[in-house]
Design brief:
Among the domains are: about 200 residues, Alpha-Beta Barrel (Anaerobic Ribonucleotide-triphosphate Reductase Large Chain); about 60 residues, no CATH class; about 130 residues, no CATH class. The longest helix has 29 residues. The protein is built from 29 helices and 25 strands. The chain has about 950 residues and is an alpha/beta fold. About 40% of the residues lie in helices and about 15% in strands.
Length: about 950
């Protein structure tokens, strides 16, 4: 695509050689738009919960091979102009031209191209790759470039805050500006003195955790990019900060509050009307640990917490105990994550200009404070040939032109603050990455958690970063190295040699990874030679971002470095509606493994019916692992995710946005092991998510009472229970209910003196197994009630029982239920138990909860009464929310198909359940993300 050119300035003041660009994907004399078939489509996006139209634009123009989902995302998210006006963009051509035109014009203006012909070829190649979904820039580029808005191209920012009130207030302001522009920010609070230190006035300092409250409230108020998505932010604290334990416990304590409020009937779902009363929910928290601390954990030694003002140790703590508290908090609520400080800074290209202290919200961008990074990601499946071979040479050519475009963008980009603008222009940090790794591995017959899969992923990652730095060295010869290079030349070259050495250590297993690794070796060798002469244009080149919205734009099956979510997925249809299909990667993988067409068809039919491959007809057991996914019958082990991160980390300038999913049954000790292994394997940052930890119940309930009961054995009184039968005619009531989309009826019959004596539950189709089980269950409960077992006993046993279906109900008194039984016995308690008995069980009506707010949170208590009055709406509502009876996203489809809860929030734009994308979530319905890519 671009020739290797003379990249050093010639002696005697001769002009530098510029870039000459060759065609790879395009044909001279034929515009890329003329090679595809275009069609007009109507985009109408509705909220599946109530059927209202969220967005509508008719007659938009897209290539015929773009999916309906990608069309909807791009039209609603990236087309500029007022909705319904003639000025609004209505074709993918216009969108691509707007962006590419700006890049080419800036490249010409700043002297990148040898001639106008080279600029034209660059324009056509860039257009072709965007048109054919080969890669995508990050969302801010599509939002802003070529419009009248500030030309903000970066998705990731790192801020700085010092131990002064002016700096802290400036932090709030800078975050607000970044969120408004559609991006996310992270920072390290460790410079702020702890609550155990004194102010210059003699008073005690507030500590960083107290200032987090203000920033959290600000982030919760501002929606990024107008209504594009919620604010995304990261807060980091060093492990030697005296307030580290308070920081670790911050979100875990709030999660316990969420559980209590949820159990009392408040709407504590993400975006719920009552969640705003809870603090610290708008940021990801991470602890920055040092090698010194991790060695102390390993040896069971002491570790010193240091004063922020003097650097002296003011407290000694047991390192293993502190590490255990970190793991326990993450086990409870998935926060805080962990960042490995010495590993991060060992790969730092610019240590003379400052340490790396923080990351962006998704933990993939790590560099200097007050800096930014613009991202772009390649669709790896676009480089897999029909012969099943990864096209490494074409991949390298694509990386060349993408890195060139990304560097050009810094020449015209606008930034939210002057310090960020100054640092970014001096260091020119880039973040090229990829998506669809999980699909590529499956399609080539590799298990995600396998040596062969990791070898191929490592080789591709090495090739990408090696080519990016080779192009960066060539650009340094054309337009000069980054301004901060001279001061950091030795360190930058040292890191380049570390990358190249890691490439030499890749162990290959077959012709696929060996060929990729061979070309990567060539790229690294060339990069080192040219870089030694020219320096490098960019202080960093690559990261692995979550690729949420842009992954949907490129029609990727998997995001970032992630495996497949599941083998069945949700697909929108052109005429409206949707259907479930087996991932198209599956038949391709089966053919790569040598199966015949008839066998492939039978296996795909089995997967469509069962959602997994276990016992699929004709599928050999040794091939099961190829189809392991993030969720489902055969889910990848947590350490499998960690091992994949470790395989690709040595080839990333930055880090990796990924969350290691753990089963609900995982223990705190297993979380400790994951965090410890991440350090041992050389990963830069790591976060875990244990299934259902965000809505888990308080731990160890009732153990203390059991112990005291054993201490004083009671006298055993034997008696024969007597059954008190109900009269032939008895008062009764019937309640219809909906729990998580499942509809049913509860019939409760009472004795004439008002005591409950029987229940019948109708759930499921008549004659079904579920209906039969519920009939038997109802009879057993009814007989128990008639033999004198108190209703309170049943309620205490069955409330908070957790299984599917679960979720929102249509009952204003019980707004969320963890299962059908949880709902049924809460409803029975409300209808048949006196207030005092229900109060002991924590079960109240909506009116009672409303009254409790004024009583429990009276002035003088520890809770801000005014905040609760203004944010918690406990007023009962008689509206019945629409409940999904079918899947509306791949996550919901997986739940319906496998009966397994996928912990993901509902999209606040359209109400569809989101799916994981790295350490963030993405909505397949409208493209909204919880992150920053």
């Amino acid at each position: 695509m671009t020739e290797t050119v003379e990249t050093t300035a010639e002696r005697g003041g001769a002009p530098r050689e510029r870039l000459r660009v060759q065609r790879v994907h395009t044909t001279e004399g034929v515009h890329p738009y003329d090679e595809v078939t275009w069609e007009h489509r109507d985009v109408v996006m509705t909220n599946w919960r109530d059927g209202t139209v969220n967005f509508e634009q008719r007659g938009v123009e897209f290539p015929d091979f773009w999916s309906v989902n990608a069309t909807n995302i791009v039209t609603s998210k990236y087309f500029r102009g007022a909705a319904g006006s003639a000025a609004r963009e209505n074709s993918l051509r216009g969108l691509i031209d707007r962006v590419v035109g700006k890049y080419v014009a800036a490249g010409v203006e700043h002297g990148y191209f040898q001639s106008g012909q080279d600029a034209e070829v660059f324009e056509h190649e860039l257009t072709w790759m965007l048109l054919h979904q080969v890669f995508s820039f990050n969302s801010p580029v599509w939002f802003n470039v070529g419009t009248s808005s500030p030309q903000q191209v970066s998705a990731c920012f790192i801020l700085a805050v010092d131990d002064t009130m002016d700096s802290i207030l400036n932090w709030y302001k800078e975050e607000g500006l970044i969120f408004k522009g559609g991006s996310g920010a992270g920072l390290n609070l460790s410079r702020i003195r702890s609550s155990k230190e004194l102010l210059s006035s003699g008073g005690t300092a507030s500590g960083p955790v107290s200032f987090m409250r203000g920033a959290d409230a600000s982030a919760g108020t501002i929606k990024s990019g107008g209504a594009t998505r919620r604010a995304a932010k990261m807060v980091v604290l060093d492990v030697d900060h005296p307030d580290v334990e308070e920081f670790i416990e911050t979100k875990a304590k709030e999660e316990r509050k969420i559980r209590v409020l949820r159990d009392a009937g408040f709407d504590m779902d993400l975006g719920g009307s009552d969640i705003t009363s809870v603090q610290y929910q708008n940021a990801n928290n991470s602890i920055r640990v040092s090698d010194e601390f991790m060695h102390a954990v390993e040896s069971g030694g002491q570790f010193g917490l240091r004063s922020r003002t003097t650097g002296e140790i003011i407290e000694q703590v047991d390192a293993k105990s502190l590490f255990g508290k970190l793991a326990k908090a993450a086990w409870e609520c998935a926060d805080p994550g962990i960042q490995y400080d010495d590993t991060i800074n060992a790969w730092h290209t610019c240590p003379e200009s400052g340490r790396i202290t923080a990351s962006n919200p998704c933990s993939e961008y790590m560099h200097l404070d007050n800096s930014s990074c613009n991202l772009a990601s390649l669709n790896l499946m676009k480089f897999l040939g029909d012969d099943g071979v990864f096209q490494a040479e074409r991949f390298a050519k694509a990386v060349e032109i993408i890195i060139t475009a990304m560097d050009i963008s810094i020449c015209f980009a606008d930034f939210p603050t002057e310090p960020i603008a100054d640092t970014t222009r001096k260091f020119r940090q880039l973040g090229i990455g990829y998506a669809n790794l999980g699909a590529l591995l499956m399609a080539t017959g590799h298990a995600y958690d396998s040596e062969g899969g990791r070898a191929l992923a490592a080789a591709i990652s090495s090739l990408m970063t090696g080519t990016a730095y080779r192009r960066s060295a060539e650009l340094a010869g054309v337009v000069g190295p980054y301004e901060g290079y001279a001061r950091n030349a030795d360190a930058h070259q040292r890191v380049m040699r570390k990358h190249a050495a890691a490439n030499d250590l890749i162990r290959t297993y077959d012709h696929l990874d060996s060929e990729v690794q061979r070309i990567a070796t060539r790229e690294w060798q060339t990069a080192l030679l040219i870089g030694a002469a020219n320096g490098w244009r960019n202080a960093q080149a690559s990261v692995l971002a979550p690729t949420g919205t842009i992954g949907l734009m490129m029609d990727c099956d998997t995001t970032g470095v992630e495996p497949d979510l599941a083998l069945v997925k949700f697909k929108k249809l052109v005429g409206g509606g949707s259907m479930q299909i087996v991932n198209q990667t599956v038949p391709r993988a089966l053919k790569a493994l040598g199966y015949q067409d008839e066998q492939v068809e039978a296996i795909v039919e089995f997967i469509a019916e069962h959602g997994h491959v276990v016992d699929a007809p004709g599928l050999r057991r040794e091939h099961y692992e190829v189809f392991d996914c993030a969720m489902g019958e055969r889910s990848i082990a947590p350490l499998g995710h960690v091992r994949m991160m470790a395989a690709v980390q040595p080839f990333m300038s930055g880090a990796i946005s990924k969350t290691v999913n753990m089963p609900e049954s995982a223990t705190v000790e297993e979380v400790e092991d994951i965090y410890f292994q991440g350090w041992k394997m050389g990963i830069k940052a790591l976060a875990i998510y244990r299934d259902n930890c965000k809505v888990g119940q308080p731990l160890s309930a009732g153990k203390g009472n059991a112990a005291s009961a054993k201490a004083e054995p009671e006298k055993v009184i034997e008696y024969r229970p007597v059954r008190k039968r109900l009269p032939k005619k008895r008062p009764s009531q019937t309640v219809s209910f909906t729990v998580g989309g499942a509809e049913g009826y509860l019939h409760a019959g009472s004795y004439p003196d008002d005591g409950l004596g029987e229940i019948f539950v109708k759930l499921g189709k008549q004659g079904s197994t579920l209906a039969g089980v519920m009939d038997a269950f109802s009879m057993s409960i009814s007989v128990g009630l008639q033999y004198g077992i108190p209703l309170e006993f049943y309620v205490s046993k069955f409330q908070n029982l957790r299984f599917e279906p679960a979720g929102m109900t249509d009952d204003p008194d019980v707004r969320i239920a963890t299962s059908v039984l949880d709902y049924l016995f809460r409803r029975l308690a409300l209808d048949h138990l006196p207030y005092d008995s229900r109060a002991q069980l924590g079960i109240f009506t909506a009116d009672e909860r409303s009254a409790q707010v004024a009583v429990d949170y009276a002035p003088g208590s520890d809770v801000d009464l005014e905040a609760l009055r203004t944010t918690v709406d406990a007023t009962p509502t008689t509206e019945v929310e629409a409940k999904p009876t079918a899947a509306h996203s791949s996550t919901e489809l997986l739940e319906l198909h496998l009966g397994k809860a996928a912990d993901a929030p509902l999209c606040m734009t359209c109400g569809t359940k989101m799916r994981p994308a790295g350490s963030c979530y993405v909505c397949e319905g409208c493209g909204s993300t919880s992150g920053c890519s």
